[in-house]
Specification:
By secondary structure, this protein is α/β, with parallel strands linked by helices. α3 crosses α12 and α10 packs parallel to α13. It starts with a helix and ends with a helix. About 55% of the residues are buried. The N terminus and C terminus are likely disordered. The protein binds zinc ion. Zinc ion binds next to loops. Keywords: Chromatin regulator, Hydrolase, Membrane, Metal-binding, Nucleus, Repressor, Transcription, Transcription regulation, Transmembrane, Transmembrane helix, Zinc. Belongs to the histone deacetylase family. HD type 2 subfamily.
Length: about 450
């Protein structure tokens, strides 16, 4: 299956593309409206709905012994630092991954009175020894030096060697700040100083590989923070990390970094389009489930086409992510929070609403004592990312939220994808003791 997926991806491979745009979405019929999602069965593992009360944050957190007492306002960290706007195209060319993304989000959070309710955090540069947990010395040296004068005359030429990358004089500092910022907020959440946190960082990280920047990403910020918690702060008691990547693109870099590591469960839901959607690699398929000790700890939910909406994502949550999170029982959740599956995004071609993001986030709050760290990844429609992140921030702050949707209609293909994922991961699911409930 893997060979087939890889061969399929190679056919469509478009390495060297200058942006993350995939093919145009194909049409797929929507199922007629149902009051309840259709149930399907596999030989060993029928689908599961989240346990009752899963979305009841206060009750779940109280039961789990959360640090935030019931009734107390959650302490939500918000990290914004204008220095991460220094990374920009060298000659001012238009580019979807630009500094206005951070500023638009910040303006919205200020205008809604949301930022002032959060704990203000400042960015810190990551130490190289922490970045070295996922990147090679050559990669770190390149990103450290790329903004120096010695690169002035070959910076653009160097950027062109990579896939969808630009550099300027501010890139080095921004990259070190982005990585260090996710470490900073993750550490505070893990230590219980904050209930949850949002790191508004750029450049994004989830495409960055061990030895090369890729897809607008220089360092893999979330992967670095995960390794920091596991390796550098054992005193914080973080032994199992769930990384949820809801960016519309596959988190190829993060997947590789934890592919054989059972301490990190990586879940990515993304457009795949049979291997033709960026990054156009076969390893974004559902067949790639991890290897060695990490076998089963890598979950890909690969959409077959665009236009996926709240209903499709909720189905993936209810039938795949939530049962797996229940079984895995993470100590903290790191969210690779790209918003390029949002309605109106110029690259993603999907249509999650701000309320849809809020609902997906609400469903995660019952795990890991509500310890969630959101790190910005993609998302290129300024209005969409600002509205979506604002809705998510309100969820973390504990505001009452009701999702009003009279019609939840996943694509027919969504059920097919979910079924494939369930079959591929059935062994993994059944290895957990809690999964007995799922598999029997
Ligand atoms: Zn993306």
């Amino acid at each position: 299956q893997r060979q087939h997926a890889q061969a399929q991806a190679r056919t469509h491979k478009t390495r060297g593309s200058t942006n993350l745009r995939g093919n145009q979405p194909v049409q797929s019929s929507r199922l007629p409206h149902r009051d309840a999602p259709p149930q399907f069965s596999t030989p060993l593992c029928p689908p599961v709905s989240p346990p009752p009360g899963r979305g009841d944050r206060r009750r779940r957190m109280a039961a789990a012994g959360a640090a935030t007492p019931v009734g107390a306002a959650p302490r939500v960290g918000l990290l914004y630092d204008d220095r991460m706007c220094a990374h920009a195209t060298p000659d001012g060319e238009k580019h979807p991954e630009n500094p206005e993304r951070l500023r638009a989000i910040r303006r919205k959070l200020d205008a809604e009175g949301v930022a002032s309710r959060c704990v203000d955090m400042k960015a810190k540069e990551a130490k190289e020894k922490y970045i070295a947990s996922v990147h090679t010395p050559n990669h770190i040296k390149l990103i450290r030096d790329i903004s120096s004068k010695e690169y002035d005359y070959r910076r653009n030429k160097t950027a062109r060697k990579f896939n969808s990358i630009y550099f300027n004089e501010g890139s080095s500092e921004s990259a070190f700040l982005a990585a260090g910022s996710v470490i900073e907020v993750a550490e505070k959440v893990a230590a219980g100083e904050l209930s949850s946190a949002i790191a508004l960082v750029r450049p994004p990280g989830h495409h960055a590989e061990h030895n090369e920047p890729m897809g607008f990403c220089l360092f893999n910020n979330v992967a670095i923070a995960a390794n920091y918690l596991l390796n550098e702060r054992p005193d914080l008691g973080i032994n199992k990390i769930l990384i949820v990547d809801w960016d519309v693109h596959h988190g190829n870099g993060t997947q590789k970094m934890f592919y054989s590591d059972p301490r990190v469960l990586f879940f990515s839901v993304h457009r795949f389009d049979y291997g033709s959607f960026y990054p156009c690699e076969g390893d974004a398929s559902h067949c790639f489930i991890g290897e060695g000790a990490g076998e089963g700890y890598n979950i890909n939910v690969p959409w077959e086409h665009g236009k996926c909406s709240d209903a499709d994502y909720v189905a993936a949550w209810d039938h795949v992510l939530l049962p797996i999170a229940e079984a895995f029982d993470p100590d903290i959740i790191l969210l690779s929070a790209g918003f390029d599956a949002a309605m109106g995004d110029p690259l993603g071609g999907c249509c999650i609403t701000p309320d849809g993001y809020a609902l997906l986030l609400t469903k995660l709050l019952g795990f890991a004592k509500g310890r969630i760290v959101m790190a910005l990844e993609g998302g290129y429609n300024l209005k969409s990312i600002a509205n979506s992140l604002c809705a998510c921030t309100k969820v973390l702050l504990g505001d009452n939220f009701t999702y009003n949707s009279p019609r939840m209609q996943p694509f027919e293909s969504t059920w097919r994808v979910i079924q494939m994922v369930m079959v591929c991961n059935v062994l993994f699911l059944c290895n957990f003791s809690l999964a007995i409930n799922i598999c029997n």
